[in-house]
């Protein structure tokens, strides 16, 4: 299996400047390759340039511009061109599927924060035997950079990436390692119901509170955004305001990740099987379609967009997608089973008699079956139905 590690780097002033130049030059390469593809298509709609053609030009580009392009790793530049090729592949896939295309855009220096090295030892070298208790990673054109390695890297390092977050620099490794020993069996199974009032509710009736990190930081974020809007573009004051807004957003993201990791770890340690709803989060956070007013040309009828926007913010703040991704990864490492089930009518079905009706859920929290009179918390009922569907699916598809 492949596992990723992310460590904080401690570059010197000169190394930080060199890392910034590396990002700038790779960004320039990305934008130049994008411009070449645009020009080729405008010249003739039947002409297209692929990754192989642009990669073959790298040797001449490095000779022509040795100061900006010749000093960096050839493999990292190829990875940047592959990144552009993937962006075009995703663009054509969305066009074919009838979705919003999203044509690849030029990247500003502040919007290009990652450089990839496809192979450890080719333009970079992870030092697995640190000297003087200090771990270092070497990059071509930068040198040996100190790394704050807070845990051991298990397995063989496959790829290395440099990532900038604000004023901090990180190295991201992917390592190939053997499948770890599964956790001991507990004999417990559970279903979870994702929500807004509670982050999740288990089929056992336990509620995990929704921390609402973004909502708690709203006041600070609004003040920082307002201060940013008053700054003149290109000024030093504006750069400081941008950095402050970015710092607040990164803090919220870290808090959300920390909560997701701890919640997922608790579920994986306690249960052999975890069933959850197969949520289509992207569809859930879409804005409602406008309703033209037939009696007023150019006018629109109320469509509940304001209320839906508030719900969308709450869904995004909860971070369901991040949590489910982490849950699946931890379950795979621990030898646990995670099953996604259809969420249709899970909160309207009585777990006692099986009666399905919208009237079974008179309020957000209360469930009362109109057929048999069973009453319970609505989220607990949803989690119980999710668990039942997960067990049916597991028995229908034995491993």
Explain the overall architecture.
- The protein has 399 residues and is an alpha+beta fold.
- The protein folds into two domains: 2-176, no CATH class; 189-396, no CATH class.
- It is built from eleven helices and 16 strands.
- It has helices at 13-43, 51-56, 58-64, 74-97, 213-216, 218-229, 236-270, 281-284, 305-318, 320-334, 378-396; strands at 2-10, 114-117, 124-126, 135-139, 143-148, 156-165, 168-176, 189-194, 198-202, 207-209, 273-277, 291-292, 300-301, 337-341, 366-368, 375-377.
- The strands form four sheets. A seven-stranded antiparallel β-sheet has the order 2-6-7-1-5-4-3. A five-stranded mixed β-sheet has the order 10-9-8-11-14. The chain has a two-stranded antiparallel ribbon with strand order 12-13.
- The protein is globular and about 80 Å long.
- 23% of the residues are buried.
Main features:
globular; 16 strands; seven-stranded antiparallel β-sheet; 399 residues; alpha+beta; five-stranded mixed β-sheet
SSE layout and pairings?
Elements: E1 2-10, H1 13-43, H2 51-56, H3 58-64, H4 74-97, E2 114-117, E3 124-126, E4 135-139, E5 143-148, E6 156-165, E7 168-176, E8 189-194, E9 198-202, E10 207-209, H5 213-216, H6 218-229, H7 236-270, E11 273-277, H8 281-284, E12 291-292, E13 300-301, H9 305-318, H10 320-334, E14 337-341, E15 366-368, E16 375-377, H11 378-396
Parallel strand pairs: 8-11, 11-14
Antiparallel strand pairs: 1-5, 1-7, 2-6, 3-4, 4-5, 6-7, 8-9, 9-10, 12-13, 15-16
């Amino acid at each position: 299996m492949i596992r990723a590690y992310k460590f904080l780097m401690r570059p010197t002033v000169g190394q930080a400047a060199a890392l910034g130049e590396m990002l700038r030059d790779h960004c320039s390469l990305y934008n130049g390759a994008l411009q070449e593809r645009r020009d080729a298509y405008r010249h003739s709609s039947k002409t297209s340039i692929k990754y192989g053609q642009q990669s073959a030009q790298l040797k001449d580009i490095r000779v022509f511009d040795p100061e900006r392009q010749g000093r960096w790793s050839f493999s990292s530049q190829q990875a940047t061109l592959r990144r552009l090729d993937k962006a075009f592949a995703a663009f054509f896939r969305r066009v074919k599927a009838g979705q919003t295309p999203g044509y690849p855009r030029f990247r500003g220096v502040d919007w290009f924060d990652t450089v990839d090295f496809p192979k450890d030892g080719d333009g970079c070298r992870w030092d697995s035997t640190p000297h003087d208790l200090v771990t270092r990673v070497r990059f071509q054109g930068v040198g040996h950079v100190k790394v704050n390695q807070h845990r051991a890297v298990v397995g063989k390092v496959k790829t290395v990436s440099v990532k900038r977050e604000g004023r901090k620099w990180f190295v991201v490794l992917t390592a190939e390692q053997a499948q770890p020993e599964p956790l001991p069996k507990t004999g417990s199974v559970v279903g979870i119901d994702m929500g807004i009032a509670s982050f999740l509710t288990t089929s056992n009736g336990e509620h995990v509170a929704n921390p609402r990190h973004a909502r708690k930081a709203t006041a600070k974020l609004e003040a920082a955004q307002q201060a940013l809007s008053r700054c003149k573009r290109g000024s030093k004051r504006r750069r400081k305001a941008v950095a402050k807004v970015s710092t607040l957003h990164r803090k919220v993201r870290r808090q959300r990740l920390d909560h997701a990791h701890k919640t997922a770890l608790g579920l994986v340690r306690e249960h052999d099987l975890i069933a959850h709803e197969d949520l289509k989060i992207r569809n859930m956070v879409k804005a409602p379609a406008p309703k033209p007013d037939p009696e007023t040309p150019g006018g629109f009828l109320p469509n509940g967009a304001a209320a839906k926007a508030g719900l969308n913010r709450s869904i995004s703040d909860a971070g369901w997608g991040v949590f489910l991704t982490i849950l699946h990864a931890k379950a795979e490492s621990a030898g646990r089973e995670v099953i996604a089930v259809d969420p249709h009518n899970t909160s309207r079905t009585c777990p006692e008699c099986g009666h399905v009706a919208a009237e079974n859920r008179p309020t957000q929290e209360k469930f009362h079956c109109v057929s048999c009179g069973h009453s319970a918390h609505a989220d607990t009922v949803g989690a119980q139905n999710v668990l039942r569907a997960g067990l049916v699916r597991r028995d229908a598809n034995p491993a």
